[in-house]
Design goal:
The complex is a heterodimer. Helix content of chain A is about 45%, strand content about 25%. Chain A is rod-shaped. Chain A is of the alpha+beta class. The longest helix of chain A is centred in the last third of the chain and has 57 residues. Chain B is mostly helical. Chain B is built from six helices and three strands; from the N terminus they run ααβαβαβαα. In chain B, strands 1-2-3 form a three-stranded parallel beta sheet, with helices on both faces. In chain B, β1, α3 and β2 form a beta-alpha-beta unit. Chain B is globular, with a radius of gyration of 13 Å. The mean pLDDT of chain B is about 90. Classes of the chains: A alpha+beta, B mainly alpha. Chains A and B meet through α17 and α18 of A and α1 of B.
């Protein structure tokens, strides 16, 4: 082999060393192969991503050859120690091909194929081609590594340039070797300019010094450190978390410090904020709790400890469900579902169970907790203790409720009152009370047992029923004074029982030990005594219902009210009955009185008429005897008797006359009273009494007298004549002085007064003088029958007036007064 | 004279006697007899003294019949009664009595009837009330 033969190899090596890309290398290699062989075409196949060989570059080869070369290749990627191989072909003018492997340490990674139109063999050329391929393989590998490195560098560079972190490398002396774009933009120094500068050139000495100290630590220790470093900027400083690590030389010695500094200013601020928040949460008087979506507690503040009694240690990691009150098992799951769907819960009033088992009244607000991606990861809840608030509210509601209840009760009772109040028949009243009370109590069955006293003084128990037919009850024995039944008849407090079957007082007594067989089923029971205001027990109202717990305190209140009203009405009814009885009695006695009066009048009439005749006959007969005795004298005794008869008949005649006058005075005059001038009447009377006045030397005077007294003239005259006549008749030692006055003391009524200076009347006789035939003085001293004052009073009474002794003192005189109506026409 | 009271009848005769009048006095003791007397009498009496309170038929009824009957309708009548009532007095006058004398309780008062009888006898039409 001459030196010319190797020239292509030299040429190849030179060309390959100049090649800067795989393409160039491939071209150079193929040109070289064609040069050293007589091949008509050549192609380079390289392993591809799929692990198979594919055409990379070809020289003078039509596609059919290339495809054939690919199909007929004796090599697979990764084969080791493969040699050249020749194959005959008959495709598209191709006669023969020689396959040359491209192989390095890790085996075959490609092939070069030489295409021949003629089948000829040149061993030497093949050996040369093998040498070319060996070089080519190295060159290709070199190019591929360089490419990879470039790519890697590019990637690193991209990472550096695009990292938000500040990345830099400083040499042992602290001089920047490399800085990324973030460094540039942050510190305003271009990455080209920063190389060779130190921190002392960029930052204030203190900061530069501390940075340098950190760097030195890394250099000295030979391992990475993580420090927070604060660098001033326009906004007052930024904080970095710097990871500084050593860069080693090939011999293992530290040559540089690399730093990756992450800006944690925001995070830092967030931490501070979180710290504040945590302090707020810790100090909050509201319980602040967080939990995950499974309801497991993740945080628990002090107020939560106080409110629920569990410490944070006890609760964190535990299910929040331990707080769930037994009567609200579904509440927490439903809240959790809400939170999972992103809803919030605000000021929801509920109860939670404390560690000690008591219930806490709370106002609950629950919000979803989200991670930075917005995904819901749990819930935060704020619970406010509203136990006191709730208690106050409950108290207020209770008061309100009670007030409303009381008002309702009052209204109800007011509406019932007239119904009960107007009923005056005891039996009907009892029935009405039973019906109303049964309805208001919502009872199925009501009864009113009344203890009454019978006509013969025996005790009876009457009853009225409601909600049940009376016949259905008649077969039952009368209730007995058991523990449940007895107290109401002793006016003891009401008995209210939610379930009588559970009551210890129930079923204790023989013979039934409970309800008599066939009795309506009773569970709810209410018994209220009916007691009068005087404390007298009238009986009891009993109510029953077949279901337990039917009668509430409100029912009891209402029924007590009705019981009181019933007692009251009963009282009234009894009182009414008594009054009615009394009135009837009174009516009877009134009628008797009237009858007696009529009898008396009849008697008086007959006395004044029918007695007159025989009395007169006796008187006349006695006078005839007296006349006969003038010629034939009677024996002395008989003469005395005759005188007695004559005196008695005279007296009796006067009495009959008086009685007649009185009867006449008792009868009203016919026709409405005319208007009369009192003065004229008085003057007439004085004239009539003229003789007596003159005889006694009496002085009669008067004040102003009305001209319109509504009285018949003769009657007024009768009264004047009687009173003045009395004044003249009952005179003392001095001559009579009589004065008549008149005043309109009350509207429409004249009061006449007749005052004398006569003997006067002892106070104890002030009324007696008005009684019929009562005389205070002996007949001898003052003659007359004593009928004048009673008659005068009767006369005045006929006109609606009064006559009375106004004033009198023995020895100084009397004043009689009487009233007469004023005539309405004047 | 229609008078059932014997004492009164006696006293009235005394009054007539005391005045010295020359008259025959016929006495009936009840209203029935009085009416029968008027019906049967041959000549009417010169004067009728009539008590009101008569048995069987009252004095008023007698007076009424007398005035209504054709016979003796003009005979003067003096009612002599113990009744003090104005109503009796008025009723008597209305029925045609010439006078009314209330029987008094004393003999002396009774004598006042005398002049009334004289007047009536003298003038049957005289009004003695």
């Amino acid at each position: 082999m001459g030196s010319d033969q190797f020239r292509p190899l030299y040429h190849l090596l030179s060309a390959l060393s100049r090649s800067s890309s795989l393409k160039e290398v491939a071209e150079t290699g193929l040109v070289s192969l064609l040069e050293v062989t007589s091949a008509d075409a050549a192609a380079l196949y390289l392993s591809e991503a799929n692990g198979r060989l594919g055409v990379h570059t070809a020289k003078s080869a039509p596609p059919s050859w290339l495809a054939w070369g690919n199909a007929e290749s004796p090599f697979t990627v990764g084969n080791k120690l493969a040699g050249p191989e020749a194959k005959d072909a008959d495709t598209d003018g191709l006669a023969r091909a020689v396959f040359l492997p491209l192989e390095l340490d890790h085996g075959v990674f490609g092939q070069c194929v030489l295409f021949f139109r003629q089948r000829s063999e040149n061993q030497q050329a093949t050996s040369l081609a093998m040498a070319v391929c060996a070089h080519l393989a190295l060159a290709i590998q070199h190019q591929r590594v360089a490419l990879d490195r470039r790519r890697s560098d590019q990637r690193l560079q991209a990472i550096l340039e695009n990292s938000a972190a500040v990345i830099f490398i400083k040499d042992q002396d602290g001089r920047y070797v490399l800085a990324n774009r973030t460094f540039e933009s942050l510190f305003g120094v271009s990455s080209e300019r920063v190389v060779g500068l130190t921190d002392f050139d960029l930052f204030p000495p203190d900061l530069a010094n501390s940075l340098r100290q950190n760097d030195l630590n890394v250099l000295r220790e030979g391992r990475s450190i993580s420090v927070e470093e604060t660098v001033p900027d326009d906004q007052g400083g930024r904080t970095y978390l710097s990871i500084k690590f050593p860069l080693f030389d090939n011999d293992g010695s530290v040559t540089a410090v690399c730093g990756i500094a992450t800006d944690i200013t925001e995070r830092k601020q967030l931490e501070i904020a979180q710290g504040r928040l945590a302090a707020i949460v810790a100090d909050s008087t509201d319980a602040v709790i967080s939990k995950d979506l499974n309801g497991i507690v993740t945080s628990w503040n002090a107020a939560a400890e106080r409110l629920f009694g569990y410490s944070a240690e006890e609760m964190i990691g535990q299910p929040i469900a331990v707080l769930s009150p037994p009567d609200r098992p579904d509440e927490m799951p439903s809240i959790l579902r809400k939170i999972q769907s992103g809803q919030r819960l605000s000021a929801f009033r509920t109860q939670r169970r404390r560690k000690d088992g008591t219930l806490a009244e709370i106002s609950l607000s629950v919000s979803p907790l989200r991670d930075s991606s917005g995904r819901i990861i749990g819930a935060s809840k704020i619970a406010r203790d509203i136990s006191r608030e709730k208690a106050v509210e409950r108290e207020r509601e209770d008061l309100l409720h009670r007030e409303q209840q009381a008002r309702k009760t009052a209204e109800l009772l007011n509406s019932v009152s007239p119904v009960l109040g107007k009923e005056l028949d005891e039996e009907k009243l009892a029935q009405a009370a039973t019906d109303i009370a049964t309805q208001l109590a919502g009872a199925e069955f009501g009864a009113f047992f009344r203890s009454v006293t019978g006509k013969d003084g025996e005790s009876l128990l009457l009853y009225t029923l409601s909600g049940i037919d009376k016949q259905a009850f008649e077969d039952f024995p009368m209730p007995r004074a058991t523990n449940l039944f007895g107290p109401i008849f002793r006016a003891e407090p009401p008995i209210r029982c939610d379930d009588i079957a559970q009551d210890p007082r129930y079923g204790q007594n023989p013979p039934h030990f409970g309800l008599p067989p066939g009795h309506l089923p009773v569970r709810s029971y209410l018994a209220v005594p009916v007691v009068t205001r005087q404390g007298q027990s009238l009986g009891g109202l009993l109510f029953a219902h077949s279901e337990p717990g039917k009668f509430t305190e409100a029912h009891e209140t209402i029924i007590c009210g009705i019981a009181a009203q019933t007692a009251n009405a009963m009282d009234n009814a009894r009182l009414f009955e008594q009054t009615r009885q009394a009135q009837e009695d009174l009516k009877c006695s009134n009628e008797e009185l009237l009858r007696a009066n009529r009898d008396l009048e009849l008697f008086a009439y007959s006395a004044s008429h029918d007695l007159r005749e025989p009395m007169r006959t006796i008187a006349l007969s006695a006078q005839l005897i007296e006349r006969e005795a003038a010629s034939a004298p009677l024996p002395a005794k008989s003469a005395g008797f005759l005188t007695n008869i004559l005196t008695a008949t005279t007296r009796m005649n006067a009495l009959v006359d008086d009685l007649t006058s009185y009867m006449k005075a008792s009868k009203p005059e016919e026709g409405t009273p005319p208007s009369v001038a009192a003065k004229t009447v008085l003057q007439g009377v004085i004239e009539v009494l003229g003789a007596a006045i003159r005889e006694s030397g009496a002085t009669i005077t008067h004040g102003p007298l009305p001209s319109n007294a509504a009285i018949h003239e003769s009657r007024l005259a009768q009264v004047f004549q009687n009173l003045i006549g009395n004044g003249v008749k009952y005179r003392g030692a001095a001559a009579p002085v009589i004065h008549i006055t008149c005043e309109e003391e009350s509207p429409g009524w004249y009061t006449f007064s007749v005052t004398d200076n006569g003997v006067g009347i002892e106070p104890q006789y002030a009324e007696r003088i008005f009684e019929l035939f009562k005389r205070l003085h002996s007949r001898e001293r003052y003659p007359g029958s004593g009928i004048g004052l009673p008659i005068s009073r009767r006369v005045i009474e006929q006109y609606g007036g009064r006559l009375w002794l106004q004033h009198s003192a023995p020895g100084t005189g009397s004043t009689f007064s009487f009233t007469v109506p004023k005539h309405p026409g004047d | 004279m229609a008078e059932d009271n014997a004492t009164d009848a006696f006293v009235i005769q005394e009054v007539i006697a005391e005045r010295g009048l020359d008259v025959d006095v016929e006495i009936v003791v009840n209203g029935e007899e009085a009416i029968r007397y008027i019906e049967r009498c041959a000549s009417c009496p010169a004067l009728v003294l009539l008590d009101l309170n008569l048995p069987k038929v009252s004095g008023f009824e007698v007076l009424k019949r007398l005035r209504e009957s054709g016979k003796c309708a003009d005979t003067p009548v003096i009612v002599v009664s113990s009744s003090p009532a104005q109503s009796d007095r008025d009723a008597s006058k209305k029925l045609g009595a010439n006078g009314y004398f209330q029987k008094p309780i004393t003999l002396s008062q009774f004598m006042e009837l005398g002049p009334m009888i004289e007047k009536a006898l003298a003038d049957p039409k005289s009004d003695l009330s």
